[in-house]
């Protein structure tokens, strides 16, 4: 992609306004927190203090709208604590330019590294830098600095208190995550009716797993409906795939396929009903037609073999899903043993893990480290530039740059465009209102609170919209402090533009491109998928040595690797960088091949033999060779070499010749080889017009 195309694409992305579900009660609650802090400071007779202290409640309220599985009061308090600390340290160094620059550079560097912990931590770090830049422009003493820091922390405490006193839909985020996972499986079941090998995005299941992690304190209060359905959903997915698959499950045509379609449709209806019940705290409602479909027909079961086993397993799991989510919502189960929960560590116990995450990023190739260095340099240079420019409020230059910058190209440039356009609209509207009506202090405060309400209400519609609300909010806040609207509008627009251009230039001069890393990300996904397939084949080879935890861990690693690959591809598609050894078409084909590979392993997991079954010599040999071939293939993907699965194919052919039963494991191995051949074919399309011999798909007739 050329630079012009990349800039156009990121600009459109930044200016996109999406329709989003509004949460008016939550928006009102957060706005009340900001209004209380502003009102308290105005009651004390200090408009300037009201301007600075309002940022604490504002930022604490903003972060509670982010998608996080942490309790909202904890988020508000954590943000307020970080803001208070950065404010106090900033005040101590503000009197000396060199000292403040050193503090700003170091603090911004640490804030940039916070992205290694997670997006919420990165956002909080960015907020602390912004508050350091804004509040230290107000002269004060050390005692005054303590007072400012205390008021900012007080704003977060107010927000946390309001969340506790006026809860809005408790456990709503966790309910939505679980309901989304069940709804995604319902959609999957419907698509399987028409496409027996339809793909499935595991992201909803990953989100549901993250949302289900609780602290021991939360485990005592978690509603019944959030206890069991996630585990059942994890078990239903492979059963759906194995039932619909034309090789392992029912044939493509005939009465068995008709019965399979009916079962898949009924499963979709049940999963949708359970999702609706969990999302809205209601009992499960099923139609008589759905209940009748899930019963064995009077003429007897129509399915045979592996398809019949999958059908019975599916019916049992659906019954468990309904039973586990169809209890009174207000009741709770007795506290279970800690091992039965996905435990979420408390905030103090997060510190060692956070430090390890940061330490892993302290390497030259890390995009997080490069982002931290980049944003630190830009903040320092922007602050110096803002002091030199003949405007005032020079801190807006580094503030705009820091709020725009993210670890990847697409977000940085799209946010830069959105922030400038939103600022232009916001300061124009705010300045016009100030010019036409000349509001007093209390009217300006009321207008600022209205802007906060609009921003919270429209939080998820788009950055340009929220930036416009924030820009108008700042105009009214400065009106409280007595700043002229004409100067405010001109400064805000010009300095925001300068800060955005500085951020974009910094990324262009010191970039972190994702495109060259695609092959390594693909190799990591292949390795994770391979370990998952190996864990399943080893259970087929030696049933007596069953280790379900090993299969589960391998599946989770495979999902994480897939998510990392898809995230990398999404970033790379927005970059003005040519592919290096992996074109877009090759990446798409490789994604399809590895998705199929994961689906085959999942189907085999649904048909694991019993513990007392006889060991399989063919599966043992296949698993051994698969391990060896995967090690070579993973390195070959990184080194841009041809993938060779001929030895693995030879082992399968010997297994096929010796095994008369033609069991599920043998047929699954054939499908796995097809997927691996597809991967080799996808990666054989070299860059720059180099012609490579395309590897044919072997065994395609078995699909």
Automatic annotation (TrEMBL):
Family the UniProt entry places it in: Belongs to the YccS/YhfK family.
Lineage: superkingdom: Bacteria
Transmembrane segments: 21-43, 74-92, 98-117, 124-143, 149-168, 372-396, 416-436, 441-459, 465-485, 492-510
Keyword set includes Zinc: no
Statement: the UniProt record of this protein carries the keyword Cell inner membrane: no
InterPro entries found in the cross-reference section: Memb_transporter_dom (IPR049453)
Principal location class: membrane
Region of interest (Disordered), ranges: 684-703
Name of this chain's protein: FUSC family protein
Topology within the bilayer: Multi-pass membrane protein
């Amino acid at each position: 992609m050329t630079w012009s195309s990349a800039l156009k694409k990121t600009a459109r992305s930044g200016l996109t306004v999406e329709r989003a579900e509004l949460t008016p009660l939550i928006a009102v609650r957060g706005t009340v927190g900001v209004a209380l802090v502003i009102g308290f400071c105005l009651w004390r007779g200090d408009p300037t203090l009201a301007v600075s202290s309002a940022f604490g409640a504002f930022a604490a309220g903003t972060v509670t709208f982010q998608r996080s599985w942490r309790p909202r009061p904890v988020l508000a308090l954590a943000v307020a604590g970080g803001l208070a600390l950065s404010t106090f340290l900033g005040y101590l160094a503000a009197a000396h330019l060199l000292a403040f620059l050193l503090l700003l550079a170091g603090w911004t560097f640490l804030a940039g590294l916070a992205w290694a912990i997670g997006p919420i931590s990165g956002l909080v770090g960015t907020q602390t830098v912004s508050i350091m830049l804004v509040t230290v422009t107000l002269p004060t003493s050390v005692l005054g600095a303590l007072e400012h820091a205390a008021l900012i922390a007080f704003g977060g405490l107010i927000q946390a208190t309001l969340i506790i006193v006026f809860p809005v839909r408790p456990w709503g985020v966790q309910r939505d995550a679980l309901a989304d996972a069940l709804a995604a499986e319902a959609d999957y079941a419907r698509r399987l009716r028409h496409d027996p090998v339809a793909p499935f995005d595991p992201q909803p299941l990953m989100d549901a797993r993250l949302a289900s992690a609780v602290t021991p304190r939360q485990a005592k209060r978690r509603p019944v409906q959030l206890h069991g359905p996630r585990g059942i959903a994890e078990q239903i997915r492979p059963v759906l795939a194995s039932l619909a698959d034309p090789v392992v499950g029912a044939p493509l045509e005939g009465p068995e396929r008709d019965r399979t379609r009916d079962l898949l449709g009924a499963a979709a209806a049940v999963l949708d009903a359970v999702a609706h019940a969990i999302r809205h705290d209601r009992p499960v409602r099923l139609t008589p037609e759905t209940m009748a479909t899930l019963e064995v027909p009077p003429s007897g079961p129509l399915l045979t073999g592996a398809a019949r086993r999958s059908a019975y397993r599916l019916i049992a799991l659906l019954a468990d899903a309904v039973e586990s989510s169809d209890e009174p919502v207000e009741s709770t189960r007795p506290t279970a043993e800690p091992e039965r929960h996905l435990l979420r560590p408390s905030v103090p116990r997060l510190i060692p893990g956070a430090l390890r995450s940061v330490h892993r990023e302290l390497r030259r190739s890390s995009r997080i480290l490069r982002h931290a260095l980049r944003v630190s340099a830009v903040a320092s240079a922007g602050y110096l530039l803002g002091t030199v420019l003949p405007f005032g409020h020079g801190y807006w230059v580094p503030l705009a740059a820091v709020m725009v910058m993210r670890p990847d190209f697409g977000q940085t440039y799209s946010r830069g465009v959105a922030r400038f356009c939103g600022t232009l609209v916001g300061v124009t509207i705010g300045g016009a209102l100030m010019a036409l009506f000349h509001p007093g202090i209390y009217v300006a405060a009321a207008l600022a609170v209205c802007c906060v309400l609009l921003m919270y209400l429209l939080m998820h519609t788009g950055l340009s919209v929220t930036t416009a609300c924030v820009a108008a909010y700042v105009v009214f806040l400065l009106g409280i402090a007595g700043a002229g609207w004409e100067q405010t509008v001109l400064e805000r627009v010009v300095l925001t533009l300068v800060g955005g251009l500085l951020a974009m230039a910094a990324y262009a001069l010191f970039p972190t491109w994702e495109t060259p890393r695609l092959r390594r990300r693909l190799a990591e996904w292949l390795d994770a998928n391979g370990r998952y397939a190996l864990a399943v084949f080893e259970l087929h080879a030696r049933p007596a040595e069953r280790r379900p935890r090993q299969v589960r861990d391998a599946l989770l690693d495979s999902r994480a690797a897939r998510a990392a690959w898809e995230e990398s591809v999404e970033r790379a598609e927005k970059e003005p960088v040519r592919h290096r050894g992996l074109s877009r078409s090759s990446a798409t084909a490789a994604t399809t091949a590895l998705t199929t590979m994961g689906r085959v392993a999942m189907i085999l997991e649904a048909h694991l033999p019993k513990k007392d079954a006889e060991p399989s010599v063919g599966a043992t040999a296949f698993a051994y060779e698969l391990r060896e071939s995967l090690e070579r293939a993973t390195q070959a993907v990184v080194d841009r070499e041809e993938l060779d699965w001929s030895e693995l194919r030879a082992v399968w052919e010997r297994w096929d010749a010796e095994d008369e039963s033609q069991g599920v494991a043998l047929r699954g191995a054939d499908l796995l080889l097809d997927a691996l051949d597809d991967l080799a074919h996808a990666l054989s399309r070299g860059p720059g017009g180099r012609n490579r011999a395309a590897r044919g798909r072997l065994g395609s007739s078995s699909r």
